[in-house]
From TrEMBL, chain A:
GO terms for molecular function: 5-oxoprolinase (ATP-hydrolyzing) activity; ATP binding. PANTHER family: 5-OXOPROLINASE SUBUNIT B. InterPro entries: CT_C_D (IPR003833), Cyclophilin-like_dom_sf (IPR029000), PxpB (IPR010016). It comes from the Bacteria. This is 5-oxoprolinase subunit PxpB. Its EC number is 3.5.2.9. SUPFAM superfamilies: Cyclophilin-like. Keywords: ATP-binding, Hydrolase, Nucleotide-binding.
From TrEMBL, chain B:
Keywords: ATP-binding, Hydrolase, Nucleotide-binding. It comes from the Bacteria. Residues 25-295 form the Carboxyltransferase domain. The keyword Nucleotide-binding applies. The keyword Coiled coil does not apply. This is Biotin-dependent carboxyltransferase family protein. SUPFAM superfamilies: Cyclophilin-like (SSF50891). One of its GO terms (molecular function) is hydrolase activity. Gene3D superfamilies: Cyclophilin-like (2.40.100.10). Transmembrane segments: none annotated.
Amino acid sequence: MSTRPTTHPLRPLPAGPRGILIDCGTTAVARACYRSLQARRMSGLLEAADLVPGATTVLVDGIDEPELLAAELPGWPISVEPEVAGETVEIPVCYDGPDLETVAKAWGVSAEEVADIHSSVEYEAAFCGFSPGFAYLEGLPEEFHVPRRDEPRTSVPAGSVAIAGPYTGVYPRSSPGGWQLIATMTNPGRLWNEHREPAALLVPGTKVRFAAVRV
Amino acid sequence: MSHIEILRAGVLTTCQDAGRPGWGHLAVPPSGAADQPSWRLANQLAGNPTGACALETTLNGCTVRAHRNVTVVVGGAPCPVTVDGRPEAWGQPVKLKAGSVLDAGPAEVGVRSYLAFSGGLHPKSSLGSHSTCLLSGLGPAPLQDGDTIPLGPSPAHPPLPTQWPAPWAGISEEIVMKLHLGPRLEWFRPEAVAELTRGVWTVSEHSNRIGLRLDGHMLRRSDTAELPSEGIVAGALQVPPNGQLILFGADHPTTVGYPVVGVVGAEALAAAAQARPGTRIRFAPVPMPHWSKRA
């Protein structure tokens, strides 16, 4: 299944003397742009120290002549369909989070239905951030988006599965956090392992499903 | 045993090398020595290859015991240096005998002194770097009294004095930083550039390897929408909703949710690493390049 590359407006913005932030406008174009930059880098056409995807952007850092890349970008062909369908990572979770009732109320459903809805979606890791091993997972339909908590928690346990805005995420280690906690991953140690390649279980582009387990 | 022993870790002493750039897509901060030129020079003077791991102190230095003969260079923030209680030279190679105790005292100016040992330090490495990261917890933990760190083999040919490179950078009480405007200058009112040019900020006490908080004029935004999380580089000057500037350093988060008005270059980052609370910071804005103008 291949889609003809089409031209999406990519807007280069300066990020210091050696960086470019590419504003892609939408998440889908940002993901496709990231894949395209990765492919270029793999084939030696792009020398960069770091490629960092964001929600609707890609940061290219550590390049010698940003103006050359910037000049090319506006007409760059980007294919928004994934070229290869990767495997889906399944994450076993227990829907027992302290904000489960709050989320159920916001969605207008029961706590059991929150689990059913949340575990029925196929997510995709849009980008990583916050902490090594943490990925912003997209896919939750818009009617289920909830705001962050008014008061962030000073400590969220490792493995907490949380939602906020368009995203779902799993905290890889104990840290402060402001998202709504709905479930717990049974084995959060899988999220980050420095001795594995890649160290992160969820890298940009990974497909993810949550599987409810009962305890 | 060829190692050093930390007798006094000081307020914060960490192991630092070139860091772990290239893992930003996995939310891994670059880390590495905060004052790169000083770290590099200390290693050169100790006869080490580029990239060797050294100690980075914070304000009040540290004390170490050598468990083999080793050459050490204390550089970066100037401080009194003693070996077994006798004064020794700062910024130059000093020979330590096995069992000797070297003390790097409180910084006279600046913040971070570097202790480079011939052979380099070999603590726990993660993702190819020995650097401690305060934000992510990767790399060795900040040092504590009693910790030991393995030393690598001594270099065969220590450098001759005639090969010594450029002098140590000065440390001043007022730093003017070139600020490359963008990426998100458009999120601010048109007068933002004039405000950045005129303003004087002071480094807040709430500053560390992750970033410097700057007290002073609050920069106001024209666009108050929520910024979708995006990647940033070291040296990014971020403006959170309260308007207080944050200049991100080596252990910066890989993505942020507030707009970055400009980015300072490597030279300014090194100066920022030696800026004590109270240091005055001014900016010399560099206009956005022509290619970034909206068509």
